[in-house]
Amino acid sequence: MYALVCQHPEGNACGPRAHVLDVSPTVPLQVSPMDFHVDHQFSISVAEPTLREQQLQQELLALKQKQQIQRQILIAEFQRQHEQLSRQHEVQLHEHIKQQQEILAMKHQQELLEHQRKLEQHRQEQELEKQHREQKLQQLKNKEKGKESNWTECCAY
């Protein structure tokens, strides 16, 4: 048998033999399942209403602190995911810009090739026109020569 000294909330202490309590381990202690939502460090079975109120206030404060920590964890996770998405978006944006620049360069190259093709076609058309004019000129010269030679033959008699 063990003796305990009782301390009352008012500060009065009883003598060592005022209350005798048998705390020998004859019956195993029944422990209730743990509640992970609340720290039971403050859970003292108290019949005194002011102590119970203090206990509840402390538990409420502990819950608010846990809630604040959870809120901070959620905010940190949100910020991490937001930064990751921002980096991914920036990479995608750079890739899109690069692709657009490549497309623009290919279009410019196509336009340049088309312009060169048209210039070459125009040059060939001018060359053909020049050849036609030269052929007609040659035909006219030949015709003139033919008339002259006919005239000289005619007049030579």
Instruction: Name the structural class.
Output: mainly alpha
Give the termini distance in whole angstroms.
173 Å
Strand element count: 2
Overall, the morphology is rod-shaped
Count, helices: 1
N-to-C series of helices and strands: EEH
| Largest sheet features | 2 strands, antiparallel
Q: Ranges with pLDDT <50 over ≥5 residues?
A: 1-6, 16-29
Strand order, sheet with most strands: 1-2
Strand content: under 5%
Radius of gyration, Cα only, in angstroms?
54 Å
Mean pLDDT reading: 80
Helix content: 55-70%
Task: Write the topology of this structure.
Blueprint: E1 2-3, E2 20-21, H1 49-156
Antiparallel strand pairs: 1-2
Family: Belongs to the histone deacetylase family. HD type 2 subfamily.
Protein name: histone deacetylase
Region (Disordered): 118-157
